[in-house]
Design brief:
alpha/beta, Rossmann fold, 5-stranded parallel sheet, 9 helices, globular, binds flavin-adenine dinucleotide
Length: about 325
């Protein structure tokens, strides 16, 4: 496999998404130190020029900016055509994609277009002694880890958000090149996205990207009690999530839902408050690094997946926890 790595950087709200920055660090690790393999970052869309500077400081060798507004609305078919063309041009062996909802869709399309292996949900990546890529990903709703040996000459890998550390900006800057729009070849008739309705979320960080998520379930008894979780999330700089019982009851919009039919999150810390731990919820949060559950029922299934469990009344525990965190943090 070529030691040239191409990292696709996704831009949201005018800045690279953090999961893409994490992918840059993985790219550097598998390509080897500067001078051995090369890491090229590619940014698509009209925001790519301004975001290129942030990317150029994160240990890559080169940044390609394709500032064509046709890429502003994500369309997997169009993106795959452009990225496959660039991958051929730089003779890449591996393409890394942040495992956002767009990224997960892109992986399969891109692998088909570029005739490569595809692995989504990668939570760890290393090189075997013979240089073969070894990917690890959670399977069976996170109950087992699968090790995938990537023995193809080309591979597209989707990386789980928050599973890797984003490199800090370094003193040196890679060169940024304006790249012309690649020949996209014959594309099928495409639907046109005429606009986006922003998802309703809390005031904290984006749920899919947050390092801390505090989620509430039916145990909260009503929408007004979510202020307890907002205080806790605020003290931790986290985002609010919810179980489906909550979104179905209209206590929170559907965009807050975590689980099989909601969002998949993998923060450093997930706090489940008044959530029973049904499998459909658990699949959306099982890959969180540390899981804390607060539930009055000692037999609640959530305790089977929790690293730390507090059996008790959330209405007493959550305010006490928030007060203690604020005291320790001096806020
Ligand atoms: C096809 C399908 C898809 C689904 N997709 C999803 C999904 O994406 N996400 C999702 O979440 N669910 C999903 N569900 C629903 C899922 O099966 C559960 O019904 C749901 O997760 C339950 O939500 P809950 O834990 O908030 O409520 P409950 O199961 O009612 O649990 C409430 C918990 O609160 C605890 N509690 C009550 N009072 C207190 C208190 N004072 N202090 C502390 N604890 C307290 C109780 O002990 C209980 O464990 C799906 C179901 C189906 C069939």
């Amino acid at each position: 496999m070529s030691s040239s790595v191409l990292v696709v950087v996704e831009i949201r709200n005018g800045a690279p998404v953090r999961a893409s920055l994490e992918a840059l660090g993985v790219g550097r690790r598998i390509a080897g130190p500067p001078g051995s393999g090369t890491v090229t970052a590619v940014l698509l869309g009209s925001g790519s020029e301004s975001s290129s500077t942030t990317v150029a400081e994160r240990g890559v060798d080169k940044v390609l900016s394709v500032a064509d507004p046709r890429f502003d609305a994500f369309h997997a078919v169009v993106w795959a055509a452009a990225i496959a063309a660039i991958a051929r041009e730089i003779d890449a062996g591996t393409i890394l994609v942040a495992g956002t909802s767009n990224g997960r869709e892109l992986v399969g399309r891109l692998a088909a277009r570029w005739e490569a292996a595809a692995v989504n949900g990668v939570a760890d990546l290393s090189l075997a002694a013979d240089g073969t890529l070894m990917a690890v990903r959670p399977v069976f709703s996170g109950r087992a880890l699968q090790e995938v040996r990537v023995d193809q000459t080309r591979a597209v890998l989707g990386l789980r958000p928050n599973a890797f550390t984003a490199p800090e900006p370094s003193g040196s800057k890679a060169s940024v090149e304006a790249h012309p729009t690649p020949d996209l070849g014959q594309l099928p008739a495409l639907g046109v996205v005429s606009g986006f309705e922003p998802a309703q979320t809390g005031s904290g960080p984006d749920l899919s990207e947050a390092l801390v998520v505090v989620s509430g379930g039916r145990g909260l008894r009503g929408p007004e009690n979510f202020r307890l979780l907002e205080d806790l999330a605020g003290a931790l700089g986290g985002a609010i999530g919810a179980s489906r019982a909550v979104t179905d009851s209209g206590w929170k919009p559907a965009s807050f839902q975590v689980g099989q039919t909601g969002r998949t999150v993998s923060p450093q810390l997930y706090i489940a408050v008044g959530i029973s731990g049904a499998i459909q919820h658990v699949v959306g949060m099982i890959s969180s690094r540390t899981i804390v559950a607060i539930n009055s029922d000692p037999n609640a299934p959530i305790f089977k997946v929790a690293d730390y469990g507090v059996v008790g009344d959330l209405f007493q525990i959550v305010p006490a926890l928030t007060a203690e965190i604020r005291r320790v943090r001096g806020s």
